[in-house]
Write a structure and sequence with these properties.
By secondary structure, this protein is mainly alpha-helical. The chain is built from seven helices and no strands. The chain has two domains: 90 residues, Orthogonal Bundle (Hypothetical Protein Yqey, Chain: A, domain1); 51 residues, Arc Repressor Mutant, subunit A (Orthogonal Bundle), CATH 1.10.10. It is 75% helix and 0% strand. It is globular, with a radius of gyration of 18 Å.
Length: 151
Amino acid sequence: MLREKLTAAMKEAMKSKDQTALSTVRLILAALKDRDIAARSKGVHGGIPDEEVLSLLGNMVKQRRDSIALYEQGNRPELAQKEKDEIAVIETFMPRQLDEAAMKEAIQKAAAATNAKTIKELGAVMAWLKQNYAGQMDFAKAASLAKQSLG
């Protein structure tokens, strides 16, 4: 389970004195705890499932990529590098990302599973992808590929 991997990674980072890994894993665990607390009000008491954890990690990577672009525009390469280092740590907990060909194949599966034929059914396709491929693809890119496929 991802939670055990995160806890073990934090202990290992402490032992090896890897400050980047330690601070990044602590950020992940803090965000995870926030989500767990928010889920309690919805009746989920055992913590959020791994699919939501993967979604959380994907969002963290996306935020850092956005920050990198801004730091590079602002001529702050040291901050951009810090964000890149954090992305490398976060991605160790995520499954392998699908390439474009695999994403197109997944979109075809989603379209077949949801009987989607037109762009109006994009929402159903994206929901199916998020349920079955959490953390494995960039959903913004998948949405544009799905629009092309359904359009």
